[in-house]
Amino acid sequence: MRRKVYVEGSRPDIQVPFAEVHLTNDDPPVRLYDTSGPGSDPEVGLPQLRAHWIMERGDVEEVPAEGTATVGQTVRKAKDGKRPTQLYYARQGTVTPEMEFVAIREGVTPEFVRDEIAAGRAIIPNNVNHAESEPMIIGSAFLVKINANIGTSAVSSSIAEEVDKLTWATKWGGDTVMDLSTGKHIHATREAIVRNSAVPIGTVPIYQALEKCNGDPLGLTWELYRDTIIEQAEQGVDYMTVHAGVLLAHVPLAADRVTGIVSRGGSIMAAWCLAGHRENFLYTRYRELCEIFAQYDIAFSLGDGLRPGSIADANDEAQFAELKTLGELTKIAWEYDVQVMIEGPGHVPMHKIKENMDLQKEWCMDAPFYTLGPLTTDVAPGYDHITSAIGAAIIGSMGTAMLCYVTPKEHLGLPNRDDVKAGVIAYKIAAHAADLAKGHKGAQDWDDALSKARFEFRWEDQFNLSLDPDTARAFHDETLPATGAKTAHFCSMCGPKFCSMKISAELKEYAAKGMADKSVEFVNSGGKVYLPVVAS
Amino acid sequence: MRRKVYVEGSRPDIQVPFAEVHLTNDDPPVRLYDTSGPGSDPEVGLPQLRAHWIMERGDVEEVPAEGTATVGQTVRKAKDGKRPTQLYYARQGTVTPEMEFVAIREGVTPEFVRDEIAAGRAIIPNNVNHAESEPMIIGSAFLVKINANIGTSAVSSSIAEEVDKLTWATKWGGDTVMDLSTGKHIHATREAIVRNSAVPIGTVPIYQALEKCNGDPLGLTWELYRDTIIEQAEQGVDYMTVHAGVLLAHVPLAADRVTGIVSRGGSIMAAWCLAGHRENFLYTRYRELCEIFAQYDIAFSLGDGLRPGSIADANDEAQFAELKTLGELTKIAWEYDVQVMIEGPGHVPMHKIKENMDLQKEWCMDAPFYTLGPLTTDVAPGYDHITSAIGAAIIGSMGTAMLCYVTPKEHLGLPNRDDVKAGVIAYKIAAHAADLAKGHKGAQDWDDALSKARFEFRWEDQFNLSLDPDTARAFHDETLPATGAKTAHFCSMCGPKFCSMKISAELKEYAAKGMADKSVEFVNSGGKVYLPVVAS
To answer: What b/e readout covers B480-519, taking b as 16+ CB neighbours within 10 angstroms?
Structure first.
């Protein structure tokens, strides 16, 4: 049986969720990290778990909104001169309830969480206006996280569908969700998503800014972009992708590529830079951005606008020139106590992955790395959740803190519900494989519990411990639908007469008794080990 | 357009198949490795492509069959004292038509193929009684290959279904197929499979031997096993898994494992050893086996009967004790001019994969490694094609020559047609990603051609170059079903107004002209880059 439990922290309002699997034998229940949130009525939204924590620190006040689209509302914002960010508090030596919350989730001490944040090696993305979120941490010393992208587009999909995808993505293990909506209703879609999300929400504000000037990048101005940032900050967006590293001088470096600039944000900024032969305003206005981000505790996700879109373009000059700039921008954000993570590629063959991780660590001073895949080959459209899960697992094992999922529809179409699930599951696999490879404390307990259940033919326990219990059960039903088969001491692979698991379970007993008696006893028991045995 | 072409070798009966993709622009056609075979009527079987090559060497004669099940038939077998194996010929300095065939397939010289075989670093599995097969090579200097397992079981499935799975598996890229049938009709199933297979067929003869003694391992004898080997040799099985490394002394090493012995063959032999407190007859009779294998040019696939079945059991003493024994057995097989590959795990977390490859190379003197996955976590039943594709890609990039696929049904049930395809595709991805990582000459041409088609919005070319054109096309149709969308200069991800690929294609032109003029021209052209453009 699988159910949600809450573990209380040092105060009663710290309630940390886990999925607890109760086993059919006497082993203790297994607790799994849980991202599914408390569940909500989409009309009402989620309760504001963190509201009290945010306000009791005394650095935030409720004020009239300033954004064009949010005008008339009351929102939270830093008091004059205050920087209510987790990085600020960590640097002060404070353990916030948010830090304690993630410490319980991760099985580490709150002080360790605080120190990792203070050093810039980890972030807790949590805008003061998204008090609904359950704190989670992104950093290489913690469990590897995954992000799921959703969002309406010009071509199709509705707000209700996107909220459903949010709930669906977090049910299967999405740690954060990015709302990449384009087309109409961006504001309303995002409002619905943030109010119903127990995980941090990320956006790419340049998409909405571009909508505001009818898709013409030459219409973009700092003022228009700033207003968009404020609007999203007031709604509660927890981290924002900012392509401030696409410098005018970098653009020509991408000219000879096989696939040019594939990042939407990157190509918009490149167009803007080239049109006026001028420097990217996200770069020139970067300190102003930092001031705004600090007021809401928004984290930077410094975008890789020049990431490679094909194997041929991996690890080229354009890509690394931008990465180096992201390192400089990281340092500046830290001056303002703003949390930062760094986005990474893209399409990279396996043997070039390590260089990405090494340079990112060096140039970005161990700020968390957040990579899209990488896809390890270009030849399998329709299966890029797999081409990229391979790269994601590898880069995760090297220290990447969060993996941005890729769905089977990548390059081809818009992901539906099934694609979202396929992407999330493939990435949970990559993340957990990486946790194992990093020797992350406790990570292997999950594998061991499942394998033990498998070896002992505890089918229900095996299903309940699975990353996707529904699919595991359904697949078993397909070959052996009978209820009795769920307690049988064999599986459909070998059938009842011929089962290696059963044989070796019995061999284990023999071996334990010493070799001499064993053979006699084995012969005396006859062919018994091959007879079908149904567990009582 | 995608069609099959044949490239002629130094003589007209060497016709090497490729899938040739013709593009819609002026680029030359792209040739892809093709495993699908000439196609056949299951009632008749395939033509005997290699019959003349085998007989013209003068070392093989047609004789009455000796197997209990094959009696009355005429089969091919070495003349007295001859060893008609590719290893023998390679050591003599001969380039056989089989070697030339694979040289053309792989884009290398025939002499290189010969030398790799002579050194034991590569094998061409091709029983003289399976003259229908199109030669293929397994070795770390060549393209990484994949194997698909099929076979009837005690629980379900029919002969016709299995032949259909064979055709299906090779259509999608299976390089070899193992027939793992258990239950009734093993002989007839195998006959149908071998006669219809253009790829090498592997088996695990102990499965059939066990059927012959009604599933009682204590009934197994060398004579019964030998008769099974002869029967399968005469049918044309190209390689056989032999668990000769499961020694009596190794069995207790597996006693404390979480999942014991998960290999069926391994557990059978362990039971046999323990029951009589005696040494594995596959080990004690190994030289006799070598003599038989040499007479038909059957390759050994030295089985890893003690491979780990869980993350907890990876790289343990039992596993490596067996691997070391497999190295000794390799040396002995080579004395008899018998080709050898070595089977590998199993369940192994990413950070323990390298040790497997390193020890295999060292102990087995660079004989080809043939691994099952490895699965990099135990927690995702229903998705083990993905948990294992990660491990397969990694170990492939390190030098593993062939990857044994895992389907989504692993641990849960019997793979159906969809599962076979899912397994094959996941493994083709892993194999190609490994080829890229190894810097295999020409491997990246495929990626580059596809990415160029993608960048230039040549949708039909992109589909035809895809590993799975059907799925790529279907996914595109799902969001943008109109025929016009297949020639549109945008995709469903961004919609017509907003397309990074299109923007950067235009940026490329601007950049090529130099920065100064560029900005003027860009402004003069207005928002043109964002208008929908449909290709003429």
So the answer is: beeeebbebbbbbbbbbbbbbbbbbbbbbebbeeeeeebb
Q: Which residue has the higher pLDDT, A509 or A268?
A: A268
Confidence check: pLDDT of A521 > 70: no
User: Over the Cα atoms of chain B, what is R_g?
Assistant: 25
Cα B254 to the center of its chain, rounded Å: 29
Rg (CA), chain A: 25
DSSP-derived secondary structure for A231-293:
HHHHHT--EEEE-TT--GGGGGGGTT-SS----HHHHHHHHHHHHHT---HHHHTHHHHHHHH
- Judged by CB atoms closer than 8 Å, whether chains meet at A379 and B512 is answered as no
Strands A15-21 and B60-64: unpaired
Are the beta carbons of B409 and A479 separated by less than 8 Å? yes
d(CA A220, CA B236): 70
Q: How many residues does chain B have?
A: 536
- For CA atoms B265, B267, B270, B271, the dihedral sign is negative
- For residue B504, the chain A residues in CB contact (below 8 A) are 254, 259-262, 267, 270
**pLDDT for the residue B123:** 98
Query: A134 Cβ partners below 8 Å, 6+ apart?
Result: A16, A17, A37, A49, A101, A198, A199
Annotated binding residue at A501?
no
Residues B240-244 have a mean pLDDT of 98
A277 exposed, middle or buried (CB, 10 Å; 0-12, 13-18, 19+)? middle
**A523 confidence band (pLDDT: 50, 70, 90):** low
* Segments in B132-280 forming alpha helices (H): 159-171, 186-195, 205-212, 222-235, 264-276
> Is the alpha carbon torsion for B352, B354, B355, B361 positive or negative?
positive
Averaged pLDDT of chain A: 91
Interface test with B, best of A251, A447, A508 (most B CBs within 10 A): A447
pLDDT on residue A524: 55
Our CA angle for B349, B351, B352, nearest 5°, is 70
A349/B252 CB distance under 8 A: no
Q: Distance (Å, rounded) from C-alpha A518 to C-alpha A499?
A: 20
| Paired tokens of B437 | 């990582």
- Residue carrying structure tokens 């390059």: A411
In this complex, the residue of B386, B436, B465 whose CB is nearest that of residue A311 is: B436
pLDDT of residue A526: 45
Give the amino acid at B213.
C
* Cβ-contact B18, B5 below 8 angstroms: yes
The three-state secondary structure class of B78 is strand
CB-closest option in A376, A436, A503 to B311: A436
CA distance B75 to chain A (A): 32
Distance in angstroms (rounded) separating the CA atoms of residues A407 and A425: 10
ipTM of the complex: 0.94
